[in-house]
Amino acid sequence: MPGSANLNVMMKTARKAGRGLLKDFGEVENLQASTKGPGDFVSRADLRAEETIREALMTARPTYGFFGEEGKEIEGEDPTRRWIVDPLDGTTNFLHGLPHWAVSIALEHKGQVVAGVIYDPVKDELFFAEKGEGAWMNEQRIRVSGRSRMIESIFATGLPFAGRADLPATLKDLGRLLPACAGVRRFGAAALDLAYVAAGRYDGFWERGLNPWDMAAGLIILREAGAFVEPIREGGDIFADGEVLCANEAIFPQFAKVIRG
Ligand code: IPD
Ligand code: CA
Ligand code: CA
């Protein structure tokens, strides 16, 4: 099992933030029926989680940079290393009391993600990977699925909400993909979608309009689990385009062909 000092810091930090969020999640369930709703409470929980993570990581590694969803990027004294953090991925689920959300922490070195941790506190599932050391969930090694037939495969995606620009492209994808596969899921937390492909639960995933913090930890977990991971646009760049397409090795060419039209 991988166990570098950096990875240990990341795992401990993800668990710490996860514990805080889990407490808040209990409160959110009580707030559903109130007239004001849990909106403000959840924004505060989200910010608090990022603060907890930033403080823990910057204390452990004071020279690294920090790039989180909720705050301004902090440039480190060491310009080659930075943390990429989504303190709460799946906010809409969290807000609605749906038990499917996660903390995502990645470490980037010279522009490459070298370690990643995704923690789902509700299920107590910790997905992690470090370059060259394989991908893991808790004490178990994980690998992508072995399915090679589209008609037996399940894919996950994110659906553009609240008027986001990617709707026409996503509807086209679904029109081509749904008749050819065993189903498409939209669970609402991109970090967990990536982890689930790595663990062989989904056979593939694609989404447009993502940010680096949604994907960074997932990318290394996927690669270490044997997945093929590419930008949707051939020759593109995953972070710059904000798009990702991933699947097990056997299904990837067929899946990519459908999504790329
Ligand atoms: C969102 C989730 C969702 C995806 C959105 C993301 P957030 O992240 O990952 O599954 O479809 O594009 O923005 O806002 O919950 O951190
Ligand atoms: Ca996110
Ligand atoms: Ca978030």
In short:
The protein has helices at residues 5-31, 39-60, 91-95, 167-177, 190-198, 212-224, 238-241, 252-259; strands spanning 65-68, 81-89, 102-109, 112-120, 125-130, 135-137, 140-142, 154-157, 183-185, 204-207, 228-230, 244-247. The protein has 261 residues and is of the alpha+beta class.
How is this structure best described in words?
With 261 residues, the chain is an alpha+beta fold. The protein has two domains: 5-142, Fructose-1,6-Bisphosphatase, Chain A, domain 1; 150-260, D-Maltodextrin-Binding Protein, domain 2. It has helices at 5-31, 39-60, 91-95, 167-177, 190-198, 212-224, 238-241, 252-259; strands spanning 65-68, 81-89, 102-109, 112-120, 125-130, 135-137, 140-142, 154-157, 183-185, 204-207, 228-230, 244-247. The strands form two sheets. It has a seven-stranded mixed sheet, sandwiched between helices. The chain has a five-stranded mixed sheet with strand order 9-8-10-12-11, with helices on both faces. Helix 1 packs antiparallel against helix 2 (39-60) and helix 5 runs parallel beside helix 6. The longest helix is centred in the N-terminal third of the chain and has 27 residues, at 5-31. The protein is globular, with a radius of gyration of 18 Å. The relative contact order is 0.14. The structure holds D-MYO-inositol-1-phosphate and calcium ion (2 copies). D-MYO-inositol-1-phosphate (IPD) binds at residues 86, 89-91, 158, 188-190, 207, 209-210, 214.
